[in-house]
Each structure stands twice: as C-alpha cells, then as structure tokens.
Specification:
The strands form two sheets. Strands 3-2-1-4-5-6-14-15 form an eight-stranded mixed beta sheet, sandwiched between helices. It is of the alpha/beta class and about 375 residues long. The protein is built from 14 helices and 15 strands. A hairpin with a 2-residue loop joins β12 (about 285-290) and β13 (about 295).
C-alpha cells in the first residue's frame, strides 16, 4: 500500500504522523511510504532519517494526497487540505468532528474514509489512541496553569505549592479519567491542594486508594461544581464524551463568581470545551481573560512538546496502521471492532453516532456500509 505522511500545518504544530521507526516497520512489510519534506525536522527527525528507514521524500503535500492510498496525520485536515482528499482514500488522524460541522461536511463531500484516533477503542473499555495525548495534555495542563497564575499573565500571582506559612493553591480537576488523573498527579507533585470531581464512584475510589490523603475526591453534582470551582485558583477541565461534544460544566455566571486572576485550563476544547466561556486558542496566543478569569484553551496542547508526543502517539497507532496497510481498510475494519469504532465517515456517510447526534446529521452504522461492499 502507498502510505503518505504530510507535514502538519496547524499553527505551532510540529508533531508528525509516522516516525522513522514506524516507517521502517511498514517498509519491512512491503509498503511504500512517502513523507513530505521537513515533516519532522522541528523534532530532530530530519529527511535523512526517513530516507534511511526506506521512505521517499515528497516535495509537497499535494503530491502525497494525490498518490497515497492511506494518509496518516496527527491533527485534523485544515481547510486547505480537505480539497485534496479523494473518494476512497483513507484518512487516519485525530478528527474531533462533533464541534466542527465545516470539517465534517468537507470530509463527507470528499468521499474519503475517515478514521478518528480519538474513537478507536480497546478491550479494556479505553481509548488507546487518545490516551497517550491525554496523558501529555493532563501533565501539561498543570504547567500551563502554573504559568497562567503568574501575575504577568493576568493570574493571581500564586505559586501552586505555596511556601512555608503560605497556603498552596487550590486546584480543582473536573473529570478523573486519563487527563484528570495525570493533571492531579502533577499538581500533587508540586504540593498543591488538589480536588478531583467525577461522576464515577468507582473511579473516585480508585483515586482515593492510590493517593490517599494527598487528594480530595468529590462526587460531581451541579452543587459540587459550583462550590469548588467558585473558590478555586486553578480549574482543569478534563471531561470526555467519546466522540461527542463536551458538556458545559461551568456556566458563564459561575465564571463571573470566581476570584480575579483564577485560571481555567480547558483540555476538552477539542470537543467544544467544558466551560461556557471557552473558545479555541493556539500555542502562539494561548490565553485570554473573561471577567478577570484567565482562560487557557489551546486545542493542540501536546504540540508544545511535539517530540515526546510524536513518539508516544506512534507507539499506539502503529499496530492499527499496519493492520490497515496489510489487510486493506475494508478487511481491517471488518475484522477489528475496536478499529471499526474509529470509523467516523465512509464515502459520504456519517458512521459515528455521537458525532451525528451532536451535529444533527443522519447516522449509518459502520457495519452497514462495510457489509454492502460500497
């Protein structure tokens, strides 16, 4: 199979879809890999390393889209890239379609087969291709929040861990999944006062058993969110509805009641955000303020640590890329329910229920379109 890896063009995005190690693995299975010139140069993965691994270097992204059967990316295709997709071409990347009707329609119109990293599942009930970036984003959320709390960023002028005789900052984490757990872990590591809210008693019990008195666990209700967010110094939004739009847990009115210089970090912004006042920002301009509350809503947070993120992502995606290449998309999707759960768009049809619900569009089950041989 001909596999193409275009250079990412989203603002300050330097991750790359395949590492040289992944390329070598694919080439050893008899596949052809094309990598766009300088796709990995920012993270010390120069073209020479890809050539040594067996890839060919393409001068432009258009060349890759024109020739490849399978496109492997990191971020969703940008508006300039969507017209290059063609009918029957497989796109494997993060998509986050629920809050993005324009991208969704563009992919539907292209006739491509779009498989989203973020909805691929595993036998443990997890999201294995989202998990590594959630781990990175959760850890980065505390770094970003700590910086935003500094006075020159508009924050309260607080040190997360405090010092002798001065209380630590109050960090509230909404959601106890992969993002929330990693955020809490880092916040505890710098000796902040950490509270995690979640609707799963089982998850709260796990966190309590693991971290004991170092963490406060609270069952999430409207009252609890209002109580803890209103007095927090830093709030991490870490909620997830797989493939669907994030729920708005923090209202505009609640933001107005927070302390001046408090910080909101919305890790759910890829799925529309969980704060009513959230709007996507970039690594070039990551923060803004509403009613004196600092918001950090970067939609590609792991891109700031692109080398770490690229290798972590490739560890998770490579088995699925190999399956698609070795078997072809139809057989690979039919054989593996977990990969099939990643299928969001198939030749003009929307095949992921949560996305269809969020956008008010018609939904067709993935097996229906695959079994018809279309």
């Amino acid at each position: 199979m001909r596999i193409g890896v275009p250079k990412e063009i989203k603002t300050h995005e330097s991750r790359v879809g395949l590492t040289p190690t992944a390329v070598r693995e694919l080439v050893s299975h008899g596949h052809q890999v094309m990598v766009q010139k300088d796709a990995g140069v920012q993270i010390d993965l120069g073209d020479d390393k890809y050539v040594t691994a067996g890839a060919t270097i393409a001068a432009t992204a258009q060349e890759i889209y024109a020739e490849a059967d399978l496109i492997v990316k990191v971020k969703e295709p940008q508006s300039s890239e969507i017209p290059w997709l063609r009918e029957g071409q497989v796109l494997f990347t993060y998509l986050h379609l629920a809050p993005d009707p324009v991208q969704t329609q563009g992919l539907l119109d292209s006739g491509c087969i779009a498989i989203a990293y973020e909805t691929v599942t595993d036998s443990y009930g997890g999201l294995p291709l989202l998990a590594p970036m959630s781990e990175v984003a959760g850890r980065m959320a505390i770094q970003a929040g700590a910086r935003a709390l500094e006075l020159d960023q508009g924050g309260r002028g607080m040190l997360l861990g405090g010092v002798s005789g001065v209380p630590a900052a109050r960090v509230v984490v909404l959601g106890g999944g992969v993002v929330g757990t990693n955020a809490a872990r880092i916040a505890m590591g710098v000796e902040a006062h950490v509270t995690v809210l979640d609707k799963s008693i089982h998850r709260l019990q796990q966190l309590d058993a693991q971290y004991g008195s170092r963490i406060n666990t609270v069952f999430s209700t409207v009252d609890a969110v209002e109580e803890y967010v209103s007095t927090a110094d830093l709030v991490i939004g870490a909620v997830l509805v797989p493939g669907g739009a994030a729920p708005k847990l923090v209202s505009r009115e609640l933001v107005g009641r927070m302390n001046r210089g408090a910080v909101l970090v919305d890790v759910a912004i890829d799925q529309g955000g969980c704060f009513a006042t959230s709007k996507p920002t970039t690594l070039a301009h990551p923060i803004y303020s509403v009613d004196g509350v600092v918001h950090y809503c970067v939609s590609n947070m792991p891109g700031a640590v692109a080398r770490t993120s690229t290798f972590a992502l490739n560890n998770a995606t490579l088995p699925f890329v190999l399956a698609l290449a070795n078997k072809g998309y139809r057989q690979a999707l039919s054989d593996d329910v977990h990969l099939r759960n990643g299928l969001n768009i198939f030749k003009g049809r929307l095949t992921y229920a949560a996305v269809a619900h969020a956008l008010g569009l018609a939904y067709v089950p993935a097996m229906d379109v695959l079994s018809k041989g279309q």
